Amino acid sequence: MDQLQEFAAPGTCKELDCGGRPCAKCRKCRDWHFSGDQYQWNSVRNWENWKKVDEGRWGCEGLELFTKRDGATCRGAVSSFFCVDRALLDGSINIVDRVLLEHDANQQEIINGNRIYWNKEKDIWVCSFAPDRNGIFEAAILAKKKSDSGNFTSAVSFTIEAKQIPIPNISYPNTWSSFYDLGLKIQAPKNSTNAIWNDDASYTELLIQTPDDVQLSCDIKYNSAAIKHGSLAQFNNDKKLWQLLFAPECTGLHELVVYGKRISDTASATALVKFGLNVTNLQRPMKFPAVFSPFQSKKCQINTPLDGILKNGSVIPISCVIPDAVGVDIKVDSEWLPTEGYTNPNLERQITVGAKEVLIFVKYDQGANYLNIIKYTVE
Predict the structure, then answer these.
(1) Are the CB atoms for 64 and 72 separated by under 8 Å?
(2) Where does the record place the KY-like immunoglobulin-like domain (predicted)?
(3) CA distance 135 to 277
(4) CB 362 within 8 A of CB 328
(5) Could you give the domains of the chain?
(6) Is 56 helix (H, G, I), strand (E, B) or coil?
(7) Which residue has the higher pLDDT, 30 or 206?
(8) More confident: 65 or 35
């Protein structure tokens, strides 16, 4: 049981002396308490007792539950419950698969009102709940053994008294387990299941922080169909964040899906997180330029032009960040332009647009072939 000693013991409605053991969250004592009523607290404290009555549900060791400060009384913030899987100690893992948040009045699940993930560093499930209004809510955690092929069953439920819920309320995008496995953190939009749309905009953006060895890509979907050249994933080298850009073709509800993988991984990227986007007004639809490998893995960035369709005969500035290349050249239609304008990592120059296309090529090793990483079309 040494694995659990880093946690302060949960207590009743008051702060408690944890016996000198720091909590996993803040590393200080006297930090964990449960603000529900005594009956609810006993249900948590005596978890093993009632678990043994229903041995067929759990088997092995069961779960140890902790609740964050103010976890059962939510005042404009998220309630989080930390579930320590004690069965890890004998290799038989209980999996918490779903968390539900229901409003007391009608027992309807609050859409995008919960989040769950496995914290590998602390070996705990983190279950978070975000009420969408003031009132009384029930938060439920469903679980089963990993080896069990049956349905998930209710493990424990809590009553949450929600007060001072902000407008707009906190909500969560849909995430897959790889989102947390890869160590992603959403920087914008914060605490929202939907991306932000401005009525005078042609595109919107997400900002996501990742470890250095992770690359991202993305899609925008309307009626479940991906919009061709409607998205662009690029690394913002100034902010050190991934910038995911999405350009809808029409008004209405869209889905924004972000994919990712480790740069060294030869397998395809998998879905990590999905946001909603409600396009209320669209004055000027646009398309992004096409990008090709290794644009993302080398963390390239297009500053201008972001519009992937250029005007025949126009004179335009080209501004890109292309780190660590040994050569960068531009081809307009079938003609190679003189090499100029690249000083690692920046490409800055002007060109005259031709009749068909503008291609940006790069090479990363002396003697290697040039690779087309960006393509603009012309109309």
Answers:
(1) no
(2) 104-165, 170-289
(3) 28
(4) yes
(5) 2-163 (2.60.40.10), 174-279 (2.60.40.10), 294-378 (2.60.40.2470)
(6) helix
(7) 206
(8) 65
